[in-house]
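Duplicate of #3305? Posting structure anyway:
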């Protein structure tokens, strides 16, 4: 009787282990899908917010609310705060990754660049950051990264040609998107160089509040803090502040801790396609054949690059 009991218990434990492993895989898959949707929705919430607010004003309000919430959480939890030197480095990263990136994205979309195209340009940042890391961090550029950059730029060129306007406003919008790409790329390399071991809550609070100070100046003096608080505006602002800046970043850090940079960064290559789909559904933005071809080309190239790099590591 006893051997049978042992077999039954072992089989039962094995079955429970299978169920738990299945639940973990399912939860992890849901977390990855949620991260992509949340990150993609940031372009939609920005576009909706710009209907009632000027770009730098919207960015400032987003940073103030998100930074204030994280500051309150850090104080309630009595988290340790970084020293003065790290504080300065975090502020620089906040200006580059948050202020320069998002205010430039909002300016680009305000000037007529579609949300899907904006997301496609920003999705190149893992590749451009890798190029910037060559002189700064002495990292090597692989053939896969070069291939991904060529395909990514080709995809952007196709998508841009869909509705290319030669007027100054649209071209300026594309220029702002390139500035946003430079901001997040430079900020990513800077953070990797100077902000290792950053505590997520306090570190992001510092970055967001530093970004708020940076964008508040043009919001006040160039835009006159142009905002109309309507019933339609609050959902977009709160979504951008709480869901995009706090929940999205929280999901990102949780997945990075579990899987590492290479696996998680590949998820961002899906953001342009999801953003374009959301924009078509919620904003009635047309997806023409060249836009779809550009999205597919860039996404395929970057995913192929990621797969090759994962095999080599």
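Output from current build:
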């Amino acid at each position: 009787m006893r051997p049978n009991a042992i077999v039954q218990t072992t089989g039962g434990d094995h079955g429970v282990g299978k169920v738990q492993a299945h639940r973990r895989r399912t939860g992890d898959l849901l977390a990855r899908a949620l991260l992509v949707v949340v990150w993609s929705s940031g372009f939609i919430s920005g576009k909706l917010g710009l209907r009632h607010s000027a770009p730098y004003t919207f960015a400032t309000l987003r940073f103030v609310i998100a930074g204030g919430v994280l500051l309150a959480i850090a104080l309630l939890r009595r988290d340790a705060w970084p020293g003065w030197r790290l504080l300065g480095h975090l502020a620089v990263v906040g200006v580059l990754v948050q202020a320069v990136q998002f205010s430039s994205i909002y300016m680009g979309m305000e000037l007529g660049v579609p949300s899907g195209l904006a997301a496609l340009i920003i999705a190149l940042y893992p590749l451009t950051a890798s190029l910037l890391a060559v002189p700064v961090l002495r990292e090597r550029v692989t053939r896969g990264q070069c291939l991904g950059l060529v395909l990514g730029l080709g995809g952007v060129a196709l998508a841009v040609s869909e509705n290319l306007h030669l007027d100054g406003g649209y071209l300026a919008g594309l220029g702002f998107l390139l500035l946003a790409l430079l901001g997040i790329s430079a900020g990513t390399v800077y953070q990797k160089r100077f902000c290792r071991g950053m505590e997520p809550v306090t570190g992001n609070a510092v970055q967001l509040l530093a970004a708020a100070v940076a964008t508040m100046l043009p919001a006040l003096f160039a835009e006159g803090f142009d905002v109309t608080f309507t019933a339609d505006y609050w959902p977009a602002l709160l979504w951008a502040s709480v869901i995009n800046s706090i929940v999205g970043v929280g999901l990102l850090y949780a997945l990075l801790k579990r899987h590492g940079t290479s696996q998680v960064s590949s998820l961002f290559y899906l953001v342009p396609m999801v953003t374009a789909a959301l924009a078509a559904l919620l904003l009635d933005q047309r997806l023409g054949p060249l836009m779809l071809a550009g999205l597919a080309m860039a996404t395929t190239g970057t995913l192929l690059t990621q797969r090759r790099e994962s095999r080599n590591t």
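Confirmed duplicate; merging threads. The chain has one domain: 54-225+242-312. The mean pLDDT is 83.
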